[in-house]
Design brief:
This protein is α/β, with parallel strands linked by helices. It is built from 10 helices and 16 strands.
């Protein structure tokens, strides 16, 4: 098996760490137990430096190779936060915190990076410096941006940065990535339509914001289908509609809440412009007024081509020559690792975990058989990218 022998030996420990973290999920930036667990392990491994409270509750470790003459500094990042979901899986180590669950595998991401840190601190078979990054608040809190703004990349002189996420239904031992845009930007819009309320039986005396909202919902779909180049990608979804409280009353207001996704910055900008213009024009046609709150979320995840090939080569070294798909179809989900990739060249990769309920589902289950592949990937990446002199 191409998995590193020493990694295979410590995999039971990594699985145990993962299961412990799974039982004690924490949300967003509120990660006292998780961050303390991570920092304690890193210090126990003998890392050269362990720094806490970067980006509020992020943890960073520095591991120097046997030589640092190359001057290379490579960062590897894992996310630590869970989700506000009540677990319904059948695992023997379920969440012990009601209403919270590691339903996206961040417990595994954290444990696998801890395993890599242990291996690298023990062996140090590389020429350079590895920066091990544990990030809070990926699930909507932009923890990557918080760490960048707190000086992460400059403070540790990081030259390249890499990240990983598990992928459901990709076989265990398989990896997938692509150069260029790999995951979408994510923005949120809230549209409040103001009309004039009245009796449902006398609509001519009112200005019905619900009718305006219905028309707007349908017309927003034409932005992706009729305004964006068919060879580009865009998603506009209205996920929540609120208007009125009674069957026989026309309300004063109606509200739409939705999201926009794109794989290109120009398309992202265009969608915002069209949503805003269309909203005002359609509402005006019904005699209503609109107020729009448009919140920019995570940017597009863009893999730098050279770094993508470096990461793919490391994955092939672990899983075999046929284990890596380097032309995966881009994903319209989002990932705040994009903030780090905006500042440094790097790449993001998917690790297969086989069949499971989807991410963010109460029955999602991470497959621990994938653990040695993730640990080995990070170890090989550091050792291949910063080899010791012959």
């Amino acid at each position: 098996m191409p998995i590193i022998n020493r990694v295979a030996e410590i995999s039971k420990d990594v699985v145990a760490w993962r299961r412990h973290l799974h039982q004690y999920p924490e949300l967003m930036y509120d990660l006292p137990k998780t961050a303390a667990f991570v920092a304690e392990k890193l210090r126990g491994f003998g890392c050269d430096e362990v720094v806490e409270a970067i980006g509020q509750t992020g943890v960073v470790a520095v591991i120097k190779g046997r030589s640092t003459a190359s001057g290379k500094v490579i960062g590897i990042r894992a996310d630590m936060d869970a989700l506000p979901i009540h677990e319904e899986s059948d695992v023997e180590f379920p969440s012990l915190v009601p209403g919270r669950m590691h339903a996206c595998g961040h417990d595994a991401h954290t444990a696998m990076l801890l395993g890599a840190a242990r291996h690298l601190a023990e062996t140090r078979n590389f020429d350079g410096t590895a920066i091990i990054i544990f990030q809070p608040a990926e699930e909507g809190g932009a923890g990557a941006r918080a760490m960048v703004e707190d000086g992460l990349l400059d403070r540790f002189a990081i030259q390249q940065v890499y990240g990983l996420h598990n992928m459901v239904n990709l076989p265990v031992g398989q990896f997938a990535l692509r150069p260029g845009a790999m995951m979408a930007s994510t923005d949120k819009f809230t549209i409040t339509i103001s009309g004039r309320g009245g009796h449902a039986a006398r609509p001519h005396e009112a200005i019905d914001p619900v009718v305006a909202a219905a028309s707007l919902i349908m017309n927003l779909q034409t932005i992706a289908s009729r305004n964006v180049d068919p060879l580009q990608s865009a998603v506009i979804t209205v996920g929540a509609v609120h208007g009125g409280d009674a069957f026989n009353v026309i309300p004063e207001t109606a509200q739409l809440v939705g999201t926009t996704r794109a794989l290109d910055g120009a398309v992202r900008d265009f969608c915002q412009e069209r949503i805003e213009a269309m909203t005002h024009q359609i509402c005006a046609a019904y005699g209503a007024k609109a107020q729009i709150s448009y919140e920019r979320g995570y940017p597009v995840v863009v893999n730098e081509p050279g770094a993508t090939e470096i990461l793919a080569d490391a994955a092939r070294d672990v899983g075999g020559v046929n284990s890596v798909d380097t032309d995966i179809t881009p994903v319209m989900g989002a990932e705040d690792f994009a903030f780090m990739l905006e500042e440094r060249p790097g790449a993001y990769i998917f690790l297969g975990i086989g069949p499971s309920a989807p991410h963010h589902h109460p029955k999602y289950k991470f497959n621990d058989e994938a653990v040695p592949y993730g640990v080995s990937l990070w170890a090989r990446l550091i050792e291949r990218t910063m080899p010791l002199p012959a």
